[in-house]
């Protein structure tokens, strides 16, 4: 996963809640032999409490979280070993902030139809993100655009198939 920019590639596995980021991300990192970061772990306690109470985060709430993710990207790229992180990265502005680090970034958008996401999120237990916030994520979602480095993968399939597609995408191979 080395590249000329920053010495290594950082892969951001993105998508709405329940799209499979926390399943695909660590397995992708393991297969690539690079460090993994669960982006949700960087949310301040206040953000987690707000979401758990059914209130969506606004951009002001996300500032410290995005700053921490941006610093992780910068440090990971500077370390020369690459990495994989999960992050909803719902807005292009957030992804633009990450790209301003100068790191060689690659986004893997795990796209999921709203009804499939709703079904999955309803089955989850012990997660701070309640089902009623799913619509707020779809409302602000800016899918990857043609000028953004990355690929969109249909995440509705079998986890092994999605992982295989993510591995091919991270390696720069055709899907």
Describe this structure in words.
The chain starts with 8 loop residues before the first strand and ends in a 5-residue tail after the last helix. Helices cover 44% and strands 15% of the residues. The protein has a single domain (9-170), classed as 3-Layer(aba) Sandwich (Rossmann fold). The protein is globular. The chain is built from seven helices and five strands. It has helices at residues 21-32, 45-52, 59-78, 92-99, 114-123, 134-140, 159-170; strands spanning 9-14, 36-38, 83-86, 104-111, 150-154. Helix 1 packs across helix 7.
List keywords for this structure.
175 residues; single chain; Rossmann fold; 5-stranded parallel sheet; globular
């Amino acid at each position: 996963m080395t590249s000329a920019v920053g010495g290594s590639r950082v892969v951001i596995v993105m998508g709405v809640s329940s799209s499979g980021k926390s399943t695909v991300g660590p397995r992708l990192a393991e297969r690539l032999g690079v460090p993994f970061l669960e982006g949700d772990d960087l949310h301040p306690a206040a953000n987690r409490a707000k979401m758990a109470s059914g209130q969506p985060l606004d951009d002001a709430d996300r500032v410290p979280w995005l700053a921490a993710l941006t610093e992780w990207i910068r440090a990971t790229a500077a370390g020369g070993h690459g990495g994989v992180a999960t992050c909803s990265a719902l807005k292009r502005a957030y992804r633009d902030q990450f790209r301003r680090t100068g790191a060689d970034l690659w986004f893997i958008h795990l796209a999921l139809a709203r009804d499939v996401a709703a079904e999955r999120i309803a089955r989850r237990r012990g997660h701070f993100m309640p089902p009623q916030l799913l619509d707020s994520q779809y409302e602000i979602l800016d899918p990857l655009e043609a000028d953004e480095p990355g690929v969109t993968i249909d995440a509705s399939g079998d986890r092994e198939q999605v992982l295989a597609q993510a591995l091919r995408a991270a390696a720069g191979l055709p899907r």
